[in-house]
Write a structure and sequence with these properties.
about 210 residues; mainly alpha
Length: about 210
């Protein structure tokens, strides 16, 4: 059955899955930054917000796997295991392909540590999770240098807009972390009076009654 497929089928599969994988990765990064920058407010967030972030990353891994399988099965450009997993081993755009290979390893590291988050020290998990930022940069570099659709205006503008959003959210996060901790807001007059009255009442109740 595979022999009857159009020779270009696997190339189309590789192209489409690569675009979808990058889009899912970009959404996961933007969503994670939105959560960390308090875009949804400072109150405790519903669990589904964090779950969506995790599912987007997991789907990015799945479509990256489809992308690699499509490249391996395609016969137009020969991609063996060596060319798929060793940077600069490919003779077809070695630098551009290397960006994708490095991004793949970073993606796997982030996803594995996310699945094992409860069993890892939080400091280790945070350090590995910070790879999400260079991962996004490497994946985007791979998209615009190796992708067949990199010359399409829609792809170019999508990459530009997404990179702008990510850069803006990163800037917001950095500024928020540098802001000094705000002092606890003072209570209003009536609140202070009620608190003082409560303390006086408690103090009187604790003192022994006067002897008659």
């Amino acid at each position: 059955m595979l022999a009857t497929l159009d020779p270009r089928t696997w190339w189309f599969v590789a192209r489409a899955s690569g675009l979808v994988a990058w889009a899912l990765l970009a959404l996961s990064v933007v969503w994670g930054l939105a959560l960390s920058t308090k875009t949804f407010g400072r109150n405790p967030k519903p669990a589904w917000l964090l779950d969506l972030h995790r599912h987007l990353g997991g789907l990015a891994v799945v479509f990256t796997g489809v992308h690699l399988a499509g490249l391996f099965a395609d016969t137009y450009v020969e991609f063996g295991w060596r060319e798929l997993f060793i940077p600069f081993a490919s003779t077809w755009k070695p630098g551009a392909v290397a960006w994708g290979i490095v991004a793949f390893y970073a993606l796997i590291a982030v996803e594995i540590t996310s699945l094992l988050q409860r069993h890892l020290p939080r400091t280790w998990w945070r350090r590995v999770h910070f790879l999400s930022f260079p991962l996004f940069v490497f994946a985007t570099a791979h998209l615009v240098t190796a992708g067949t659709d990199s010359g399409v205006p829609l792809t170019q503008w999508t990459a530009v807009v997404t990179c702008t959003i990510v850069a803006f959210l990163v800037l917001v996060r950095l500024v928020a972390r540098r802001e000094p901790t705000r002092a606890r807001p003072s209570r209003s007059g009536p609140e202070k009076e009620r608190e003082l009255a409560g303390r006086v009442t408690a103090l009187r109740a604790a003192l022994p009654a006067d002897e008659g």
